[in-house]
Amino acid sequence: AAETGVRVILADEQAEFGGSLRFESGAKIDGQDGFAWAQAAVAKLAAMDNVRVLSRTTAFGYYAQNFVGLVERVSDHLKAPGHDLARERLWQVRAKRVVLASGAIERHMVFADNDRPGIMLAGAARTYLNHYGVAVGRNVGVYTANDSAYAAAIDLKKAGVNVAAIVDLRDNPTGPVIDEARALGIEVNFGRAVIRAGGKLRVSSMTVQPKNGGGERTIPVDAILMSAGWTPSVHLFSQSRGKVAFNDETKRFVPGTYAQDCVSVGACNGADGLSATVDEAYAAGAKAARDAGAKTAKGTKPKVDTSESWSRGMLGAAPGAGPDTTVKAFVDFQNDVTAKDIRQAVHEGMRSIEHVKRFTTNGMATDQGKTSNMHGLAIAAEMLGKPIPEVGLTTFRAPYTPVTFGAIVSHARGPLFDPTRKTAIHPWAEAQGAVFEDVGQWKRAWYFPKAGEDMHAAVDRECVAVRKTAGLFDASTLGKIEVVGPDAAKFMELLYTNPWEKLEPGRCRYGIMLREDGFIYDDGVVGRLAPDRFHVTTTTGGAPRVMNHMEDYLQTEFPHLNVWLTSITEQWAVIAVQGPKSRDIIAPLVEGIDMSDEALPHMSVREGKICGVPTRLFRMSFTGERGFEVNVPADYGQTVWEALWAEGQKHGAAAYGTEAMHVLRAEKGYIIVGQDTDGTVTPNDAGLD
């Protein structure tokens, strides 16, 4: 399709393209190793102007009118991502034609204690070996109901790993991989089942029995590789409102009736091998190009020289096996649903698979039936004496895998018309290498990493500095409102739960503002500067709404009160100096204020000068240590900060960001409205009664 000139997006959820070619050791395409061919093909596509190649990108939803949602993981895998690099990127794609090559998911086998460490899918073991060079054990056993597990056993044997035995649930399978396994000296057992795994901290043995009953045999192993066949990933097809069809011969659901302009190819369409996959993919690409407006198809179909063909297998649970209450045979590993649970659901009267699903939680949450769906259907159908299609099929809902809220609505999205607000101290923090976070419209210093520090190390260092010596924190973004007038105290008492009439000038009080329904709306420290003047602080994000809230009540409910409200958030820079040495840092710079405990006790405010600049000095703490908040006119914010910083270096002070602030306040049990509250929290709930 790309060679015709149409615009193409190629997305793969893995870090590397190639799908199962990453672990298929015998695949050859156009004379090359299959995985090497795939890498070369992707490199060629990436060089084309009309093609966008996206690795680490999941198609999580297929919606109406060929709208596909993609989420690209941009920086999680990077050791040191740039500060301006988004963590994830959301792609909203409206396509003329969609080709689904979503592959298939290997099914596990259902047997007693199948959750022991060391028990894994055969495909996983093969990927570890062929792609990463890691052997999952030294003496492995294989339990299977299809041919693909034989390929894993063969690769391990050739790599020098002992394969104790292959246990095949099928009666008399035939095929080249079975012959090759026997030729390598691997013991192969047909018509038998693993009835339980031994071991506690990890698997140590597997006990084998003829599937219709008989003598048991225990085989020592240090790993069990299992494969009950492959379930086509029809999730996106189903989300597109397509109708799946059940293939009774292969025991799997495959795409049936299409509802949108899409086509499924390869394993997700039920193809059992590489040759069939390439044929379907080439035809689909040519048709997609024509549907997208290309007049002639170009390119040559790749030639598959050698490939693996995975035979049609069984579902991987010994038929007729009754529930054993003494052991657990897991069907859904995420939700701890066992075969017994599903049988119990049917016994309790659940007939629809949707009811069974909700009774047991099988296939719910992030699994969405990927690994457990077919086993659950098969067990329920066996209990009901019905074919699997008559039991039903659970709904595949978007997203295919969980999508973070941040990918959809985060602030890492480039500039917007919404203004970006920065404090007067922002340039200093930027020069010090601070990492910033968005808090409302504000850019706030998140943490200050030194060379070689990640966020955790930087925050730990900042917290220790505050606890042992002192820390400087830019608190300028906190909302600030002046409430002035003869009725200011009366107005405050109408809006806050606290009494204000008897608060003496020069003292502060923590205030809680509630909505009319009694839930916490905002909070902050309020200082009484004079009998008719209050300096009110709010949360950073709450400043505009608290101001509007006050204005609304003043104009509509209390117009008779003689009060004026003024937002002063941007007029004052605020520097919090917290820690045991905080007074020693501030005192040399202050004029006209007695800094002693007697003259300036906790929760007090004084007006004076610092560095020759007018200041409102609050003695208050959001860390639990001795603390002060220095309010100065914003134009002098950085100058005063630098003076405090220079004084602080004599005492080992550090700058700290919002992350350390959160840690410090949480250690002392201080709440933050909007983070520890959700609009349904009362003062009693928050321990403020």
What does this structure look like?
- The chain is 25% helix and 27% strand.
- It has 18 helices and 38 strands.
- The strands form twelve sheets. A seven-stranded mixed beta sheet has the order 34-35-36-37-33-27-38. It has a five-stranded parallel beta sheet with strand order 10-17-11-12-13.
- α4 links the parallel β12 and β13.
CATH superfamily placement of the domain at 105-229 and 314-391: FAD/NAD(P)-binding domain
| Helix share, percent | 25-40%
Radius of gyration in whole Å, from Cα? 34 Å
Average pLDDT, to the nearest integer? Answer: 92
The largest β sheet comes out as: 7 strands, mixed
The CATH topology of the domain at 105-229 and 314-391 is FAD/NAD(P)-binding domain
